[in-house]
């Protein structure tokens, strides 16, 4: 009897503690959910290094461009291993020749790793293109040259693992010219043999193995130095290439990966100096490409990493703002890109690999006017289809049939999974509008909001400066709703739109770089009293407007009208 009473008392006490335990968990929810965190640094800075995940879960990071003892750039032969258990890098054997990321790296079916071509240096330190290839054996930690070289020097080429374990190596730059030639590497014989030529010469293209064993080759630069939209298919059964449907937009230095449904997603890249934001899907059954959602930030020299849950992560790369720390994710179910928590450091040409537990390693790379980076970080994906930070804002259409009294209704929600910081809203009332009253309703996601008006402009921000994520993203839950009762001007065209800008960030390591910023713009016109504006997609706006909202949010507004 006494035992039952003790058990009952303990159980009652535990149940009573549950609300307290849940409250204690709230501050840590964001840290546990997702985001980029620093890992140990690489043993040396590497620009254009290559990475491959090994069967035991470690990641081989090899080659690239680094600095020698005199501070001069050199092509690296060294390699290191990332241990996800300890988040540290350890040394391993070196390649027989230094080579950069213009080479290719391919994880073989037997657990070894093949590296082909690229740019290196001869004995006199002169830059040369390479025809050599070598294989890393994780059992011994050593690299060995293949039994023969490729049919010629190659860099900016593409390589992909075939269904039978062989590797197709195609195109690239050769001895002063772009190549249409292709080689096949056979791990069983450790040798390369020529196969059929591509339909055109190309470099900086993509190569993706399809579910039926064929290989899709997409885009690149061709002989006249113009980017191309064309694509072709390699059939390993015949050793021949044949043209297939082309991209909607030509591009080179794009990325591509196969989705779980068998289609191929192509993202980013350049078209003769212009960044391409387009995402396109190749359907092997139809042999055609179709547009899907655009990337939030167009980029090149980036990484496109398929995640175990079927989504695809885009990280780093060159953008119109330089090496970016912005990351985003494509969901093939919704066909949409969503913003995720940004990397702690902007960069391009990083080494990227998915870990066995679903996390993603991003290591090294380059930033303008800085030496090659040794900094590495690991991304933990957000569970489910939710973005890490996703502002949703709507503004109602003015509820007025003509001139006279009316109102606007503006609301803002963080539909992501991370708490937002530096939150602010700035809006511009139409000329001649007289504000009669503000009404502000807020949820416990952000605390008390304050608004200030100066002429036709007004700014609003939460007193605490943060905006917690909606605990149930499936159900819209605005953090704040602002009703503006006003009187329309006696003359002029009416109704007029209310243009609003919202900005928020996710907290990151300020010692490295500034916060991630996401901006939503909403503009509403029309007189339909029933209409509510559709949620606008986050997109960049003028720097001046962004700076103004940032200042408003950082200062913390006081006073309510």
UniProtKB/TrEMBL annotation:
Segments of this protein annotated with the region Disordered: 527-561
Coiled coil location: none
Top-level taxon of the source organism: Bacteria
Presence of keyword Repeat: yes
Residue ranges, compositional bias (Basic and acidic residues): 540-550
Gene3D superfamilies: Galactose oxidase/kelch, beta-propeller
Keyword set includes Transcription regulation: no
Pfam families documented for this protein: Kelch_1 (PF01344), Kelch_2 (PF07646)
Keyword entries, A-Z: Kelch repeat, Repeat
InterPro entries tied to this protein: Gal_Oxidase_central_sf (IPR037293), Kelch-typ_b-propeller (IPR015915), Kelch_1 (IPR006652), Kelch_2 (IPR011498)
Protein name: Kelch-like protein
Taxonomic classification: Bacteria, Pseudomonadati, Pseudomonadota, Gammaproteobacteria, Lysobacterales
């Amino acid at each position: 009897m006494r035992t039952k009473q003790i058990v009952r008392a303990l159980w009652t006490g535990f149940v009573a503690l549950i609300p307290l335990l849940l409250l204690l968990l709230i501050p840590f929810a964001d840290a546990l959910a997702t985001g980029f965190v620093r890992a140990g640094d690489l043993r040396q800075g590497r620009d254009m290094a290559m990475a491959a995940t090994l069967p035991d879960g470690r990641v081989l990071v090899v080659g690239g461009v680094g600095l020698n003892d005199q501070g001069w750039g050199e092509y690296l032969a060294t390699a290191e291993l990332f241990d996800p258990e300890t988040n540290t890098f350890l040394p391993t054997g070196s390649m027989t020749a230094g080579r950069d990321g213009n080479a290719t790296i391919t994880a073989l079916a037997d657990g070894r790793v093949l590296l082909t071509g690229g740019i290196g240096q001869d004995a006199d330190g002169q830059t040369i293109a390479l025809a050599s290839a070598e294989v890393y054996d994780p059992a011994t930690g050593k690299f060995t040259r293949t039994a023969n070289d490729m049919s010629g020097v190659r860099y900016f080429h593409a390589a992909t693992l075939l269904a039978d374990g062989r590797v197709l190596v195609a195109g690239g730059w050769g001895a002063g010219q772009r190549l249409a030639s292709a080689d096949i590497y056979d791990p069983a014989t450790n040798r390369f043999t020529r196969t059929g030529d591509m339909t055109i010469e190309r470099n900086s293209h993509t190569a993706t193995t399809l579910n039926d064993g064929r290989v899709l080759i997409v885009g690149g630069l061709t002989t006249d130095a113009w980017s191309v939209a064309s694509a072709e298919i390699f059939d390993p059964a015949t050793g021949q290439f044949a043209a297939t449907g082309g991209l909607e937009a030509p591009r080179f230095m794009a990325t591509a990966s196969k989705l779980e449904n068998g289609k191929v997603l192509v993202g980013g890249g350049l078209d003769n100096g212009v960044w391409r934001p387009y995402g396109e899907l190749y359907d092997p059954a139809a042999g055609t490409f179709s547009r899907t959602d655009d990337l939030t930030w167009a980029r090149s020299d980036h990484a496109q990493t398929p995640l175990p849950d079927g989504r695809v992560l885009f990280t780093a790369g060159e953008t119109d703002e330089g090496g970016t720390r912005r990351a985003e994710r494509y969901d093939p179910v919704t066909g949409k890109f969503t913003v995720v928590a940004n990397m702690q450091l902007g960069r391009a040409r990083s080494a990227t690999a998915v870990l066995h537990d679903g996390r993603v390693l991003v290591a090294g790379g380059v930033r303008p006017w800085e030496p090659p980076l040794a900094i590495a970080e690991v991304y933990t994906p957000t569970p489910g289809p939710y973005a890490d930070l996703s502002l949703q804002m709507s503004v109602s259409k003015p509820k007025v049939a003509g001139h006279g009294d009316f109102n606007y209704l503006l609301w803002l929600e963080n539909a992501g999974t991370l708490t937002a910081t530096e939150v602010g809203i700035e809006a511009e009332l139409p000329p001649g509008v007289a504000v009669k009253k503000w009404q502000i309703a807020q949820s416990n996601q952000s605390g008390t909001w304050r608004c200030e008006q100066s002429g036709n402009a007004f700014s609003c921000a939460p007193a605490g400066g943060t905006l917690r994520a909606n605990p149930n993203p499936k159900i819209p839950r605005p953090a704040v709703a602002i009703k503006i009762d006003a009187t329309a001007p006696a003359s002029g065209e009416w109704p007029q739109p209310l243009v609003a800008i919202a900005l928020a960030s996710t907290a990151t390591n300020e010692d490295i770089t500034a916060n991630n910023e996401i901006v939503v713009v909403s503009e509403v016109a029309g007189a339909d009293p029933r209409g509510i504006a559709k949620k606008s997609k986050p997109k960049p706006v003028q720097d001046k407007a962004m700076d103004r909202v940032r200042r408003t949010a950082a200062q913390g507004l006081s006073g309510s009208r």
